[in-house]
Amino acid sequence: MLRKLLTLLILVCLAGGILEARQHGYLENTSELFLKLWQGKSSAISEDRVENEALEQVNAVRRSAGLSPLILDTPFHDFLVHELGLAPKKTLDEILSAWQKANPCFIRVAALSIRSFTPAGVQKEISNWTEGSDKDYTHVAVVAQSGMGNIWQGCVMIVGERLPYFSPELLNAGTVTSYYSVCRLCGNGHPCSVQNHNQTFSLECPHCHRIYTILAADSQKQMHYVNEYLTEYAPPAHFPKALSRLQEMLLIWRAVGKICKYTLDPADPNNTTSNDPTDAWQFALETQVLGTGDCEDSAILLADWLHSRGFEARVAIGRFAERGGHAWVVTRLDGKEYLLESTAPNPRIDSEPFAIDVGSRYIPDAMFDYDSIYVRTDPHDIWDGKYWDETKWVRSQQRPRRAPPKSPVALELSTILQAKIASITAHH
Ligand SMILES: [Zn+2]
Predict the structure, then answer these.
(1) What's the CA-to-centroid distance between 300 and ligand 1, angstroms?
(2) Domains in the chain: how many in total?
(3) Mean pLDDT across 221-241
(4) Are residues 127 and 258 in the same domain?
(5) Among 53, 67, 62, CA closest to 114
(6) pLDDT for 164-190, tens place per residue?
(7) Number of Cβ within a 10 Å radius of residue 389
(8) In terms of domains, do 122 and 242 share one?
(9) Is the domain of 315 the same as that of 398?
(10) Among 317, 320, 319, 346, which residue's Cα sits nearest to residue 329?
(11) How many angstroms does the Cα of residue 325 sit away from the middle of ligand 1?
């Protein structure tokens, strides 16, 4: 009787165990394993198929949660294949930190390693992996793995949040606020966040602690690198034949004073008629057509015109004694440096405006020309008025330079200007 009871108890326990194993899916795997061993052959699927199915599975989970699918990152995949094949084997953590070190635009990564006797087992683990359905992850790498003569198959899956490289185009699209940017001076990259893109702003490197790029918004609230405001534009003009280079430079300076009537920018704190926070920069053509502009607008027109006539000219931005934020033009001719105040309506051109003479009143923070920006080597150093002294300035090249915008606005302005020139000619 006791023996019968004991047998019954064992049978009940066994049935319970089988039931539980089936519920958890182990039994299915185990029977599959026994089947494989019994048949003595592998029913393994190709590595490509394992990888494709794993990718499809993770993206199916994301789509059902309303998230965008992960993008397969080929260099990441190749790196993973290489690292997993190394002996002695590296841990997944070591592989991840090596990848992030080489690719800092991946600001976050997570890994999953799966081994299963069945493809269904692999899919199930991917479905249950919370990192796979994290909204911030953007990219994925997956490498198939197998062992014991293909008795088990699986994969290593890595997901990562890769920041897009900073560009004015992305900024203008307004879809993202976090970027990855590479310093043009030291070559190191860093994550950066740009929220408000209607204001002039600069990117400063956290490694070499220098400003390496400056951007400003145009009247259509589109951001451009400041260099791109120089478009090699020259207003139509006739110059007397017997002019010296100095006379020509001063004549252009005075012409800009006549063309461009000084107006306060809407964003200027001294402007009480506007609350618009946008500090819009104008292209030279716009300033000529409008006939008005603030300091950087007239400085851009002047530098553009001088450059188109073969002069060495830069736009300087910084502070002017009692006025605060300001922009002006500096030029170099026959080894002498000049400072041209572009907002002066009728500058005196009977004496030479040497930069050194006004050195302590105009204090620059940065300068730019067609392809470079220049920042002070030591911004706290007492300014002595030497704009071409290489020890005082750090130059960073701004390449690739993009073509000037061919917007409908620019075309419209060009038409207005042609009409203006025609009417001027008709009056003479
Ligand atoms: Zn740097």
Answers:
(1) 27
(2) 2
(3) 89
(4) no
(5) 53
(6) 999 988 999 988 889 999 999 999 999
(7) 11
(8) no
(9) yes
(10) 317
(11) 25
Mean pLDDT across 156-161: 95
Cβ neighbours of residue 134 under 8 Å, at least 6 residues apart? Answer: 110, 159
User: Per-residue pLDDT tens for 84-117?
Assistant: 999 888 999 999 999 998 888 999 999 999 999 8
Whether 267 maps to a domain, the answer reads: yes
Q: Which residue range forms the structural domain that includes residue 387? A: 230-424
Q: How far is the CA of 319 from the centre of ligand 1 (A)?
A: 25
Interval between CA 246 and ligand 1 midpoint (Å): 38
Q: How far is the CA of 203 from the centre of ligand 1 (A)?
A: 10
Residue 363 belongs to what H/E stretch? strand 362-368
pLDDT value, residue 323: 74
> Measured in angstroms, how far is the CA atom of residue 316 from the centroid of ligand 1?
22
29-48 pLDDT, tens digit per residue, is: 555 555 555 554 456 788 89
- Who has greater pLDDT, 276 or 146? 146
User: What is the Å distance from ligand 1's center to 212 Cα?
Assistant: 7
Mean pLDDT score across all residues of the chain: 84
In a domain, 108, yes or no: yes
318 Cα to the center of ligand 1, angstroms: 21
158 within 8 A of 141, measured Cβ to Cβ: yes
For residue 364, give every residue at least 6 positions away whose Cβ sits within 8 Å of its Cβ, in sequence order, or none: 316, 317, 318, 376, 383, 387
pLDDT surpassing 80 at residue 394: yes
